Amino acid sequence: MRTAVLASGGKDSTYASWWALMQGWSIEAMVTIQIVGNDSMMFQLQNTTIAGLQAKSIGVPWISINSEGIEEAEIEDLENAIISSNLQIDALVVGALRSDYQKTRIERMCQRLGIISYCPLWHHDSLEHMNSLIDHGFDVRIVSVSADGLDDSWLGAKLTGENLPILNQLAKKHRFNLDGEGGEFETIVLDAPHMNQRIICEAETTWNGSRGTWLVTNAHLE
Fold first, then answer.
1. Within a domain: residue 78?
2. 168 and 217 both lie in a single domain
3. Same domain for 103 and 6?
4. Do residue 105 and residue 153 come from a single domain?
5. 33 and 109 part of one domain
6. Is 72 helix (H, G, I), strand (E, B) or coil?
7. What pTM does this model have?
8. Distance CA 198, CA 89 (A)
9. Which of 4, 22, 5 is nearest to 136 (CA)?
10. Which of 115, 148, 173, 195 lies most in the core, judged by the most C-beta atoms within 10 Å?
11. Which of 49, 83, 118 is where one domain is finished?
12. What is the C-alpha to C-alpha distance for residues 187 and 141, in angstroms, rounded to an integer?
């Protein structure tokens, strides 16, 4: 199976790329939508260039696509990029967890392209998924927070067996998604079982009193 992975650099797409390799499939490219506008209904906003270093560490090509993030147009940007890149693939692997908005648009695009859409994490239990990331050695860092209960101490924090129970308690108390699927927080992955080199980075923290970001300013492979 020849695949491309829709890669944001975050925990879910990175897990999905590992999953694809675990199936014995080849990854022909990791494809990243980089939002140059102010918002997106489908794609991660910050630190998506990390996906390029992930691809280099894994040893696969990286395709980067700029998009204004305009609703409905951003999926067209992705489709046009796949077509113009002449990728020879059988499937697109996506790290969607529960967003019907994202999943249905990806599936329709794949139907038009004549390829299969795989969402290996679809409706996985949140706590099981987060524990699996830790158990399998994913170095997950929180790079943005925008939910009640999450303060600036979480920015840049590594997901661990020690702080996951705390995050779970906060999620229950403040009623946000433990896996961040509702946009409560975003992540990047600096190391994973299928990466040959870990990513080293420097970042700057910004905080406005209720939300903030951990913006990577410099990154390279170790």
1. yes
2. yes
3. yes
4. no
5. yes
6. coil
7. 0.95
8. 27
9. 22
10. 195
11. 118
12. 5
Tell whether 98 and 10 lie within a shared domain. Answer: yes
3-state secondary structure labels for all residues of 115-163 = CEEECCCCCCCHHHHHHHHHHCCCEEEEEEECCCCCCHHHCCCECCCCC
125 lies in a domain? Answer: no
Model confidence over 166-218: pLDDT tens digits?
999 999 999 999 999 888 999 999 999 999 999 999 999 999 988 999 999 99
- ∠ CA 65-142-99, nearest 5°, is 60
Neighbours of 196 (CB within 10 A): 9
Domain around 102: 2-118
| Number of domains comprising the chain | 2
Residues 6 and 114 in one domain: yes
| Amino acid, single-letter form, for residue 53 | L
- What pLDDT is stored for residue 212 in this prediction? 96
Mean pLDDT along residues 94-109:
94
Model confidence pLDDT, tens digit, residues 102-114: 999 999 999 999 9
Domain co-membership, 13 together with 56:
yes
Give the pLDDT score at 209. 86
Per-residue pLDDT of 119-167, as tens digits, reads: 999 999 999 999 999 999 999 999 999 999 999 999 999 999 999 999 9
Same domain membership, residue 105 and residue 18: yes
The answer, yes or no, to whether residue 38 has pLDDT greater than 90, is no
Q: Which residue from 41, 3, 54, 87 is spatially nearest to 183, judged by alpha carbons?
A: 41
Q: Tell me how far apart the alpha carbons of residues 34 and 47 are, in angstroms, rounded to a whole number.
A: 9
